[in-house]
User: What shape does this take?
Amino acid sequence: MTFEALLATSPAEHAVLARADVSASFAGARNRLVDVAGTTFAFRELGMAGGAPLVLLNHWGAVLDNFDPRVVDGLARERRVIAIDYRGIGLSGGKAPLTVDEMANDTIALIAALGIGQVDLLGFSLGGFVAQDIALKAPQLVRKLILAGTGPAGGRGIDQVGAISWPLVLKGLLTLRDPKTYLFFTSTTNGRRAARDFLARLRERQRDRDKGPTLRAFVRQLMAIHAWGRHAPQELDRLRMPVLIANGDNDIMVRTALSHDMARRIPGAQLIIYPDAGHGGIFQHHADFVRKALTFLAQ
Assistant: This one.
């Protein structure tokens, strides 16, 4: 189907297409496009048809190729999974929003454009900010919520993510390593091994890769993160859907203490803290995380 034909389809027709064109693996999932109020959004879809799909919301500066294939493929063994690009990122059109509020509104509109009535959400880092905001704005839309490597609005230190990250981004450039080596993982032997394995997995897709983020989009998303850190605290006790929270015990980007804070404030929330792990704890312990996430979603 051509891009023009895809844009001409109705939400109901999008839902039929989604069920009919589900890939067996994330590496083989094709890039798809949908028009949302005049802006093109990119997504990939795979997994089992039926039930509420699991929508994946990723980190600062991430495009579709930054979703961990082991996590996505593992979840897709039992779930229909949809990974998306935010506005202004990767193959999605428009200008990257300056607030989490706008990203949440975009995602709600995207889900509606796909003809989906209810979803599960998995938000990692920035994606966790967006997922919380969606769940508070549209609680009837969200069946279950998974928050990984993330924190609440107004969380201590979130407005300092840029100050923490830029020196490590520079370190990555100077050492010829991907900055996520230092940002997502600990400096221990286990952490360095996990970083190498994770980055190798991100390179598994050879064809039809997504476009990398522009510097402008990168900076605008950082401004949105800074604003989230200065945002008034939200009433997380209003979240009545089941919530699973996961992180490493040494997250230097969004402090691990914030995962504990969310778990205290969200009624009945489950909390997983991985030892000797950082911001990317769910990638370092992907097998265990997938198993526990699937159990949580199936309960």
